[in-house]
Design a protein that fits this description.
This is ferredoxin--NADP(+) reductase. The chain is α/β, with parallel strands linked by helices. Helix content is 36%, strand content 19%. It folds into 2 domains: 185 residues, NAD(P)-binding Rossmann-like Domain (Rossmann fold, 3-Layer(aba) Sandwich), CATH 3.40.50; 225 residues, FAD/NAD(P)-binding domain (3-Layer(bba) Sandwich), CATH 3.50.50.60. It binds flavin-adenine dinucleotide and NADP nicotinamide-adenine-dinucleotide phosphate.
């Protein structure tokens, strides 16, 4: 497995289970470019959602199981080529996710003060890529603490669950955030943030958002916050009415929004304005963001969103683009630029127009950056079924490798981190948290993770 996020781990789980049923002797290597496993469960899921983050312990059980080995800190495409990896194992399963962001394609998108959601998310979850060991700023990465300290008014573009995560982190009280596992330096920066007003832009109407109801409702339950919804936006046209009748999530979301539209405003410190049918035309500013030019939008007969009416400006010191993620190419692996995915049929990778024996794909890099963690489980099963069918049909013939993986990594001078190291990091994070009355504090810097990996055994003297 190239990637130890949920999809790679779910393939490991399904493969070991199904192989045992059919009497196949399978060993599974789960590789990740980071020193620690769990992908977006650690570096995506919002810190104020501890129960979802605790899915980690289920993934941990699979990685700890006999026949499964975690190789952390091995970057495929850099430390080992895809060809070398393929030559050392019977089958490769690409499970490396979709870590980049979709572009808006509008003027000013790259101005200082305009950040993509993955940049903010990796920062607040403590991803080592954006927390360099010297405490500086990762090359090409915005200095998020500085942006947060100076920003009072923020525009968040997009109406999905990532947009909601970002809004919550921007407006939730420090007392509540202190109970999370956010790194110390992130908490510190959030303590001094100046954010007061957040404008969330949904380019389509309230019946078409990508929010799940539980996450939407949570916004209205936050302390010291008014959610502002224009009742006029909730008057549905004919098509929106049809959508609301047929889509239960849409109708539930509309009910939540209707409650908010009827609420009187209070003297709350924070306000979140939900702007429906509002599209960004340009991010404004010369040397940094000063606002977003927007327009009312509508949907064409062919389903395309188009601007209607006169543009106006929403002032902003910070713009967060939360319009979806995008998969990147892995050198040496097939890739479809138009979709940002690896081409496949039922998880069997298509290389140069034909099935490529021994190459499979799963998760976000297979189906695109949509779906909750559980979606990756059924997706992984589909891939494993294809793989085992290929063994049955003799398309995938096990054995006969020039250089088995473990010795190959050692010969390269690589020192992968395994699950023993993860358990030491885990213990160090819990200990760091407990020093400050928290359950856990994420170690954000690579150096800290490696030191903890070398540290004492959990429970040892
Ligand atoms: C911000 C955010 C919040 C989310 N919150 C929730 C939530 O609350 N609940 C929910 O159900 N779902 C949530 N999701 C969705 C969920 O996280 C995804 O469905 C899931 O993580 C996708 O799994 P994956 O394994 O395909 O990708 P990932 O989780 O991204 O895992 C990919 C792994 O591959 C590794 N990798 C990448 N390149 C290489 C390489 N070249 N060599 C080796 N390893 C590599 C990465 O380091 C990573 O560990 C969220 C998603 C995002 C973006
Ligand atoms: N708590 C949770 O369960 C949780 C938390 C976070 C993420 N996730 C999951 O992770 C996946 C990814 O979430 P996501 O929020 O990144 O993506 P998403 O669900 O695809 O939402 C993206 C949003 O961006 C909008 N958008 C796209 N292009 C745009 C443009 N050019 N201009 C303006 N708006 C644009 C989309 O609007 P249109 O619909 O008009 O295209 C949509 O509202 C989802 O499946 C999500 O459910 C789950």
């Amino acid at each position: 497995m190239v990637g130890a996020g949920p999809s790679g781990v779910y393939v490991a789980e399904a493969l070991t289970r199904e192989a045992a049923r059919s009497g196949l002797d399978v060993t599974v290597a789960v590789l990740d470019r980071l020193p620690v496993p769990f992908g977006l469960v650690r570096y995506g899921v919002a810190p104020d959602h501890p129960s979802i983050r605790s899915i980690r312990s289920t993934l941990e059980q699979t990685l700890d199981a006999p026949g499964v080995t975690f190789y952390g800190d091995v970057h495929i495409g850099r430390d080992l080529t895809v060809d070398e990896l393929r030559a050392s194992v019977d089958a490769v399963v690409y499970a490396y996710g979709a870590a980049s962001d979709r572009r808006l394609g509008i003027e000013g998108e790259d101005l200082p003060g305009s950040v993509a959601a993955p940049e903010l998310v990796t920062w607040y979850t403590g991803h080592p890529d954006v927390h360099p060991d010297d405490g500086g700023v990762a090359p090409g990465h915005p200095w998020v603490p500085g942006l947060l300290a100076s920003a009072r008014e923020v525009v968040v573009i997009g109406a999905g669950n990532v947009a909601l995560d970002v809004v919550r982190v921007l407006v939730r009280g420090v007392d509540e955030l202190s109970a999370t596992d956010m790194p110390d330096e992130v908490l510190e920066a959030l303590t001094t943030r100046g954010v007061r007003e957040v404008h969330l832009l949904a380019r389509r109407g309230p019946a078409y958002t990508a929010f799940t109801t539980k996450e939407l409702r949570e916004l209205g339950d936050l302390a010291d916050l008014d959610v502002v919804v224009d009742p006029a936006d909730l008057v549905l046209d004919e098509t929106s009415t049809l959508v609301a009748e047929q889509d239960r999530v849409a109708s539930r979301n509309l009910a939540v929004l209707a409650q908010w539209a009827g609420r009187p405003s209070t003297e709350a410190t924070h306000r979140v304005h939900l702007h429906f049918w509002t599209s960004p035309l340009a991010v404004l500013g010369t040397d940094r963001v000063t606002g977003v030019q927007v327009t009312r939008s509508a949907v064409d007969a062919d389903g395309r969103v188009r601007p209607v009416g006169e543009p106006w400006t929403i002032p902003a010191d910070l713009v967060v683009r939360a319009v979806g993620y995008r998969g990147l190419a892995l050198p040496g692996a097939p890739y479809d630029e138009s979709t940002g995915r690896i081409p496949h049929a039922e998880g069997r990778v298509i290389r140069d127009g034909a099935f490529s024996p021994g190459e499979y794909v799963t998760g976000w890099i297979k189906r695109g950056p949509t779906g909750v963690i559980g979606t990756n489980r059924s997706d992984a099963v589909e891939t494993v079924v294809s793989l085992l069918e290929d063994v049955d049909r003799g398309v995938l013939v096990p054995g006969g490798h020039e250089a088995p993986l473990g010795p190959l990594l050692a010969a390269r001078g690589l020192h992968p981190l395994g699950m023993a190291e993860w358990h030491r990091i885990d213990a160090a994070e819990r200990a760091r948290g407990q020093e400050h009355g928290r359950l856990r504090t994420t170690l954000a810097h690579r150096g800290e993770l490696l030191d903890a990996a070398d540290g004492p055994e959990p429970g040892g003297a």
